[in-house]
């Protein structure tokens, strides 16, 4: 496969049609909309007068043909999508799949193939069946491993001649950001009290997901030995705030939270630092020898990751904390870097550093499956969207990726920025936090014509891709 230039999407953020053709309710479908630094609420009892962003999203379920035509016009040779588990197994624990859900993805993938766009398919991206969260307690329950395995086997069998590239769990490390209630809920179906999360339960949930992910790799290779199955980690690069050695030590926990996931998924076993941590915290996981063997046998073919930002940590209590993205970044301001309108630090050089760190550690192919700038876009008087800030962001990140490849020798499979078109934001449910190359006319309250408009970045990326060929 040649280098993949494309973009990324996730079902619950673009498809809408949340209860159409037999689809079940996912954990995302009961989340309200919010604003920057405010929590999205989880409504176990949905209310008829509340706006739930995923219900319509940007209606990709009904518009995918026109949208894919635009992606093809841009020259993309690949597109990352995710399958909504709830379209295929509405509650998650059924024996028989929902044919209409399977057919939808058949049609969607065929449409991509029509334009020679390679699908890169995420098996689970923040939208597990709600029923598995409420009736089984989410991923902390090992029964969910079996339900997920059944779902994977079903979709592998169905799409084995159409899809080669798979990702198992989106940003599997998000579980560890449990002080931010939304993330373990979306990733693991855990409904936690923010003040009082049980760390042992978090690690048990992750263990179950690692086993499920490794099992998905094993099953996938059995069904089609040409499948390329990757992990997906949300990579926030961490810097020490100064050359004080203690600042470097301060970065250890954050780094380890990331590398512990990639270590398990790429090497097949738990590293000693995490075992030591569990010992200190008196955390005992419920594991079996068979599961540990599955982890070993099911190491990934490549490492997919998202990269948006870096954070800077200080051991000193006197350095003021960064406030504008406090839910996600726990560190201090970095005077060398600017931030997005949502407080996410913009750090293209950080991407080169991440690529090097991952490649030095694993020597496996790397795949950038998300990277992008969430920004407020305005439609100008000329009817166009002049998003030069997004063009600069992407250009700078691509340049650093190319340095990593050409100067440092890192093996990169592709660059799939977030997002192919404007979709709803995962952290806030907003529309105004736009990432796409294509503008979608819709506001934060759900009003708008859903009309698509090509942004300046659309034309820029189109020309850029053409130059690469
Ligand atoms: C990643 C997720 O963490 O970040 C995406 O995989 C998400 O689903 C993206 O949309 C950007 O985050 P947000 O909250 O700005 O939409």
From TrEMBL:
Keywords: Glycosidase, Hydrolase. One of its GO terms (molecular function) is 6-phospho-beta-glucosidase activity. The keyword Hydrolase applies. It is an enzyme of class 3 (hydrolase). It comes from the Bacteria. The keyword Hydrolase applies. InterPro entries: GH, GH_1_N_CS, Glyco_hydro_1. Pfam families: Glyco_hydro_1. Its EC number is 3.2.1.86. NCBIfam families: PRK09589.1 (NF007154). Belongs to the glycosyl hydrolase 1 family. PANTHER family: ARYL-PHOSPHO-BETA-D-GLUCOSIDASE BGLA, GLYCOSYL HYDROLASE. This is 6-phospho-beta-glucosidase. It comes from Breznakia pachnodae.
């Amino acid at each position: 496969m040649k280098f993949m230039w494309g973009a990324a999407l996730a079902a619950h953020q673009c498809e809408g049609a949340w209860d159409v053709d037999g689809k079940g309710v996912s954990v995302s479908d009961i989340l309200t909309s919010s604003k920057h630094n405010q929590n999205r609420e989880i409504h176990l009892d949905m209310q008829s007068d509340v706006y739930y962003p995923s219900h319509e999203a940007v209606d990709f379920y009904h518009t995918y043909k026109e949208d894919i035509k635009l992606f093809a016009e841009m020259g993309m040779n690949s597109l990352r999508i995710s399958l909504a588990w709830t379209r295929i197994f509405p509650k998650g624990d059924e024996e028989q799949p929902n044919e209409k859900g399977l057919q939808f993805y058949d049609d969607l993938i065929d449409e991509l193939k029509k334009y020679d766009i390679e699908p890169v398919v995420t098996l689970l991206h923040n939208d597990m069946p709600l029923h598995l969260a409420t009736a089984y307690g989410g991923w902390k329950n090992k029964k969910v491993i079996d339900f997920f395995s059944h779902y994977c086997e079903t979709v592998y069998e169905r799409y084995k001649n159409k899809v080669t590239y798979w990702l198992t769990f989106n940003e599997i490390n998000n579980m560890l950001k449990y002080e931010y209630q939304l993330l373990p809920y979306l990733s693991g179906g855990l409904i936690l009290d923010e003040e009082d999360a049980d760390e042992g339960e978090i690690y048990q949930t992750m263990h179950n997901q690692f086993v499920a992910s490794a099992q998905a790799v094993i099953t996938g290779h059995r069904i089609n030995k040409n499948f390329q199955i990757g992990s997906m980690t949300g990579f926030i690069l961490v810097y020490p705030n100064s050359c004080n050695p203690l600042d470097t030590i301060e970065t250890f926990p954050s780094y380890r939270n990331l590398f512990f996931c990639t270590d398990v998924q790429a090497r097949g076993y738990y590293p000693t630092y995490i075992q030591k941590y569990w010992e200190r915290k008196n955390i005992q996981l419920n594991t079996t020898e068979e599961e540990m063997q599955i982890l070993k046998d099911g190491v990934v073919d490549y490492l997919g990751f998202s990269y948006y930002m870096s954070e800077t940590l200080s051991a000193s209590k006197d350095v003021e904390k960064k406030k504008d993205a406090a839910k996600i970044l726990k560190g201090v301001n970095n005077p060398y870097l600017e931030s997005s309108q949502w407080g996410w630090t913009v750090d293209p050089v950080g991407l080169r550093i991440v690529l090097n760190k991952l490649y030095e550690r694993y020597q496996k192919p790397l795949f950038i499956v998300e990277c992008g700038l969430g920004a407020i876009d305005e439609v100008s008087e000329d009817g166009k969207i002049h998003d030069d800030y997004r063009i600069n962001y992407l250009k700078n990140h691509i340049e650093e990726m190319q340095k990593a490849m050409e100067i440092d020798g890192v093996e990169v499979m592709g660059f799939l920025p977030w997002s192919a078109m404007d979709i709803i934001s995962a952290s806030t449910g907003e529309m105004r936090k736009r990432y796409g190359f294509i503008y979608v006319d819709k506001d934060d309250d759900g009003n708008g014509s859903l009309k698509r408009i090509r942004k300046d970045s659309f034309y820029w990326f189109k020309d850029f891709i053409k130059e690469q060929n």
